[in-house]
Specification:
This protein has 348 residues and is of the alpha+beta class. The chain has ten helices and 20 strands. A hairpin with a 2-residue loop joins strand 19 and strand 20. The structure holds flavin-adenine dinucleotide.
């Protein structure tokens, strides 16, 4: 029986280990969770926006397959605390590939998706000042999940299925497949997958392994009180604003950042970005919370130049499974299934 180690207990590592247990015996799978980082990892901070439509075709396919699986599985929905609020994706115009992507989503999740013009949207009154050519891809069956809750439950399920779940840091992964846990006994594996999110680069660098172009970037959003009836989960590409309803009468609103190469665990919120988020939210959706009632949240995510969470080989038997690039919450179900199958095939 091949022995497989997964290093990193975020949603990527936990989900991959769980998928591996579907194709090999649980006893073959060893997950090193890296406990001390958990409070600051991307899975804990994630906004969890989940939909099927993405402008990038490869990501759209993965997001649609992931959402279709989530919707067909009551267990996954419960574990991920899925809330179906609907989703709106605003684009500056109808691109040449958009109709094909809408059809793709329709084939995976029938009856969910439709396209509205800026005029239709203005009539609804939720978004203001949209460019004239804008269109909205609207999904009824989409919303948000908690990657943190899903990860926690997967760790329990993994232990039940006989996998070894080891809390604590891994000091190093060597080119010949040795995993060296901090304060533990080093062990050799047939395959090692480093799924340590934004910590992946530094872990690989300790043994001179290449990081294959991975980079880190801060992501920041604000949490504030809901004021009136705001939009459901949405992304507005025309302004960069995204958001969703949050627990207990609060909303989450964010803008993309350009804060690259940030050390994970040390991403203080940028007050200038917080003000910009509030300015754009005021003009686009009329959001004006009482002063002092907004809290900024920032965390660091791992990006890959080709975008998206996928299994990337580094050396014989050594892989990364990271590079979620700000969106792995919605693609992890399909990405982990593909990764587990391809990893097990490579060991036969
Ligand atoms: C603020 C924010 C908002 C987001 N919002 C959304 C969203 O709305 N929708 C969406 O789809 N996606 C969203 N994302 C993206 C998504 O949440 C991430 O892509 C996903 O959580 C990444 O999971 P991961 O497991 O790769 O990384 P992480 O969650 O960062 O997990 C990495 C794990 O590796 C462990 N580790 C680190 N070093 C070691 C070591 N030496 N040994 C062992 N373990 C180690 C850490 O403890 C950590 O648990 C968001 C991300 C952020 C940061």
């Amino acid at each position: 029986m091949p022995r497989i180690a997964v290093v990193g207990g975020g949603i990527a590592g936990a989900m991959l280990a769980w998928r591996l247990c579907e194709v090999v015996k649980g006893g073959a799978v060893h997950l090193f969770t890296g406990e001390p980082h958990r409070w600051a990892d991307a899975s804990a901070a994630s906004g969890g926006l989940t939909r099927a439509f993405e402008p990038d075709p490869a990501l759209c396919l993965e997001a649609a397959d992931s959402l279709a699986e989530l919707q067909s599985s009551p267990a996954l929905r419960e574990w991920a605390s899925y809330r179906e609020t609907g989703s709106v994706y605003l684009l500056p115009g109808l691109g040449p590939g958009t109709a094909g992507l809408v059809e793709l989503v329709r084939s995976r999740i029938p009856g969910s998706i439709s396209v509205l013009t800026a005029e239709d949207l203005s009539a609804r009154g939720t978004f203001r000042g949209l460019p004239e050519e804008s269109v909205a891809v609207v999904e009824k069956r989409a919303g948000y999940v908690s990657p943190n809750a899903l990860r926690d439950r997967l760790l329990v399920e993994l232990a039940r299925s006989g996998a070894s779940v080891v809390d604590g840091q891994v000091d190093a992964v060597t080119r010949d497949g040795e995993v060296r846990p901090a304060g533990g006994v080093p062990a050799r594996f047939d395959a090692v997958v480093v799924a340590a999110g934004a910590w992946t680069q530094s872990l690989l660098a300790r043994t001179g392994l290449s990081d294959a172009g991975l980079r880190t970037k801060a992501i920041q959003y604000v949490l504030g009180p809901s004021v009136g009836t705001g939009p459901s989960a949405f992304v507005d590409e025309t302004s960069g604003l995204y958001g969703r309803a949050y627990a207990e009468g609060r909303v989450l609103l964010g803008l993309p950042t350009d804060r690259w190469d940030i050390t994970p665990g040390t991403a203080p919120a940028d007050p200038t970005l917080t003000s910009r988020i509030l300015d754009v939210a005021a003009s686009r959706i009329g959001y004006r919370p009482p002063a002092g009632e907004v809290k900024a949240v920032a965390a660091v995510e791992c990006y890959h130049p080709t975008g998206g969470l996928s299994l990337r080989p580094l050396a014989r038997g050594i892989y990364t499974f990271t590079g979620g690039s700000g969106g792995a919450g919605k693609t992890v179900l399909a990405a982990s299934r593909t990764a587990a199958r391809s990893l097990v095939r490579s060991l036969r």
